[in-house]
Every structure is written in C-alpha cells, then in structure tokens.
Design brief:
It contains two helices and twelve strands. Helix content is 18%, strand content 30%. Strand 5 (94-98) and strand 6 (101-104) form a beta hairpin. With 184 residues, the chain is of the alpha+beta class.
Length: 184
C-alpha cells in the first residue's frame, strides 16, 4: 500500500512540474522574449530566409519603437502571420517618398541597410502623416514587389507591433546584436 501512495505522489509531482514549466514558458514568450525565423526576402540584405532572431516583447510595455528598429508586426490582413520590418516613421512623423528616396519630416533619411542604387518604390500613395500610436514600417529589400509594408497597407498601430529584434543568433557566423534605435 505504501508503494502505491509513493507512486501516486511522484506522479502528482511530475504533473505539477510539467504544468509549472508550461505556464512559465507561456509567460516568457508572451511578456519577455520570443524567437522568430525570417521567412521571405523582404528584409534583405540585412536579414535572409531562415535566419533566426531573439526578439524582446517587454520593451513594448515601457517604450515605443524608434526609427531604425527591426520589429515583428501582426500581418494587417488578419491572417495570423507575422512580418519582420524596419521602423521608418514614429507617431507625428510625416513620411514621403520622392524620386525613390525616403524623407521623414522633410529630411532625406540615410538608409545604409538597403541595396545600393535601388530606389524605394511607391504603391498607391507617396506621403503619410502618422497619428498618435501609428508607425511606418518598411522592408529593407526595396526591389519592386519584394516587401509588403506600410507603403502598401499604411501605418501600423502600436498594438500590432509584437516585439523588437534584439539579436540574430542563427546562422552563428552572422551573430548580430541589434541596438535599439540604430540603423543596424
């Protein structure tokens, strides 16, 4: 009889351990950090297909993304997909694309992360005024049709920004730390 009680106690301890581990994993992924795999070519030459990143979730509760940050957003079409994009404009900014160049508040921005000689295409519109809580995001790959971003679907509400890229850990040979608000 004693053996049966010990086995029952051990089984209960294992169940508690598994439940605790699952709850902790959900809390960590939801509020602290998660991992993301790059799918597609929209962030080339900065990020490539199948590269993996650690992305921070918790900063979104304390501060807004800054220009230059690489962020993960909910796809605006409601498909449940996530897009990896770069913040080009923050609330209050005026964004315009003229002759293939991007301007923020009337000043042409430096974009060392895009392919040289490639002009930024426009879709239906060429200028946007960002309201409070809106961000303008674009992929680094500006070749025609390579990035579906704010030029196509408009500004992104802050609540659709899931996390900010902190580092690329795979492939190991391309390990990179992404600094907040810098043109990495």
């Amino acid at each position: 009889m004693k053996r049966k009680e010990e086995s029952s106690t051990t089984a209960m301890e294992v169940v508690k351990l598994v439940v605790t581990a699952v709850v902790l994993a959900v809390i960590i992924r939801t509020f602290i950090f998660n991992t993301t795999m790059v799918i597609g070519q929209s962030m080339e030459p900065t990020l490539h297909q199948n590269e993996r990143m650690i992305c921070l979730v918790f900063p979104k509760y304390f501060s807004d993304p800054e220009r230059g940050d690489i962020v993960i957003i909910d796809a605006p079409d409601g498909s449940g997909k996530e897009y990896v994009k770069r913040v080009a404009g923050v609330p209050g900014d005026e964004i315009s694309i003229e002759n293939g160049d991007v301007f923020v508040n009337g000043v042409q921005i430096e974009e060392p992360y895009i392919h040289r000689g490639v002009e930024t295409e426009i879709y239906n519109k060429s200028d946007w005024k960002l309201a409070p809580g809106e961000f303008f995001v674009m992929g680094d790959n500006r070749h025609r049709g390579m990035s579906i971003d704010s030029r196509y679907f408009g500004p992104v509400p802050k609540e659709h920004i899931r996390s900010r890229a902190a580092l690329r850990y795979y492939p190991f040979s391309k390990f990179t730390v992404f600094h907040h608000g810098e043109n990495n």
